[in-house]
Design a protein that fits this description.
Elements: H1 15-27, H2 32-39, H3 43-51, H4 58-68, H5 72-90, H6 93-96, H7 107-120, H8 140-147, H9 156-165, H10 174-188, H11 223-231, H12 234-255, H13 266-275, E1 278-281, E2 293-297, E3 302-305
Antiparallel strand pairs: 1-2, 2-3
Helix pairs in contact: 1-4, 1-5, 2-3, 2-4, 7-10
Length: about 325
Amino acid sequence: MTRSPAGSVSDRPFAHLAEHLTALRRAARLPQRALADTANISRGAVQRAESGTAAPSPTVLDAYLRACGAGPASTARALLLRSRGRAAHRDKLRELRAPAPAFIHDKRDLALALAEAYERAGAPSLGDARLAPGRKPLPRTTAWRIVNRKGLPATTEQLVTFLTACGIRPAEQRPYLDAYQRITTDRGTRPTPPRTQRIARRIHRTPLAYGGTDTEVSYELTATTAALARLVPARVLEEAFTTALQQYADREAHRNGTTPPDWITTTHILDRLAATPFIARAPDHANDSGADLVLHTSDGSTMIIQAKRHSRPTRPDALAPTPAPTDRAA
């Protein structure tokens, strides 16, 4: 005669499930060995399921119930007791404190409510297609983010799949769906952060080569540059500007196949900036007038810089050998 585990089972997380399964086996008049053979599972799996110390896997539990001839009510109770046992064993519901589905206001509330639904369902395997028949299982990464409150389902379909896998009936899913629609809609209408404003290059009405001026076009700093200029100290900003200006002149001269003149140096630029404020702009390559750099002064005048031609100093030609002095005859 097979014995059930001795002693009280009230202090074990799956004690109520073990009592229910033992009662079903005895009602079917099956000893543990015979039930194991009928269910095609090991006797150890039967003993662990009736011990109350661990939850039987969904496959073992399903085979156990079918071997005992359990009806729909007994099967539903066994699944409920298993979920309650896993929730008690994991002991995470106390720290969640999620609001009721009808009182979800923001993303945090919805994340807590979904995590609580998962824990109350006994932390089911969300990749098991049997938990949501006819629906595509959740991706593993998506399921992990939802369970750990790192994110929400990407679509309404994923939300329905998650709730169905957690044992929430369609009639009870409506508050979750309404909150999800409201939160995702609000999130989509939030103002986007300011992005870098691109300055479109403008074509001169009259090319500079034909006597046109460049003062008719206005230029401004981009949003990112202006924000950085307010944060960086003036001394550092001045040094960065002059260094970048010299690098730009080097690059434009290299593009033209020349080298920058010697007077385009940081020292020279600083001297000019100390005397007159300039506003620098890049040349218009769409209508190239030949200028490599344009500087606007505060008095309205314009300085155009173009690296036309410059060659590095070369070594002087070798001098012809001087004949050695000789004594002349008197």
